[in-house]
Amino acid sequence: MTAPILHGGGVTEAAARFGGTPAEWLDLSTGINPCLISLPAIDPNVWHRLPDRHVEEAARLAASRYYGTGDAMPLPVPGTQAAIQLLPRFVDAGRRAAIFAPTYGEYARVLSAAGFAVDSVQRAGDLAAAHGLAVVVNPNNPTGRLLSPEKILAMAGAMKAHGGLLVVDEAFGDLEPDASVARYAGTSDNLIVFRSFGKFFGLAGLRLGFAIAPASVLAAFREWLGPWAVSGPALAISAKLMEGDTEAIARGILARKAGLDTVLSAAGLKIAGGTGLFTLVESERACELHTVLCEAHILTRKFDYNPHWLRIGLTPDENGDRRLAEALQRTGV
Known about the structure:
Aspartate Aminotransferase, domain 1, Aspartate Aminotransferase, domain 2, 7-stranded mixed sheet, 17% strand, alpha/beta, 2 domains
């Protein structure tokens, strides 16, 4: 069994170590919209019944419009992590996997646990005939590296030449619609795109994502996930929100991002990357800074593979910005 990946979150564990109740902590360890949005009114029957077909179809249609997939209907999944767990089933035994690294660690963990050799790659030219599956996160977590659709599609073409699949994780893609290749996934025979619902909309607790892929791939996901994989309320809520004022949500996120970066720059921290939902800072004192902020009951995300990195998510308001600024001032960074 492979070792678990260190993720963001975990306020309960942090509070147990550093004190305070979880509610008192400022959790900046995740890349989730921190601004609570109003939940739309939904038919009460979706709480009472198993997910009806028309509820799923409404969510799929809303997702196709929101992600710009045309006639290709995205498949709802119970969080993209559930779909990641199934990726090894698409790879023939004896082939290798390639992951554009550093990135979200669950891809390497899941593929390695299934017995596949995993190569960390940096460039499209590193993809080889031995690779049955390649993964690129775009925009990347945690560096924020952003590749153009042309480069992504060229990678898909390179993988297709030797019978391989390309997985593009666009979990942080809502604020970068021009970089998305979701519109190509339904017509390509070897491109899989994952989209996360909970990050942009700030509803990670719904555990909802979408897979966009050829019909045969989606049929396999549906079969492996089993019936009623996504709850009716999650489907109904997502359909309403994706058809609502998403531009207002984006403006709110970008305002919070500007506030965070202002605080970090004023503290003298080097901004090394990030997306609209988090900032990556680089410091020789990153581990110490993480601990000192924990002592102030502020949780950030450190990395075991790079002790000089710290990922810091958005605060929910200007009071959160001030709290972070004051804590950073006390650290003397």
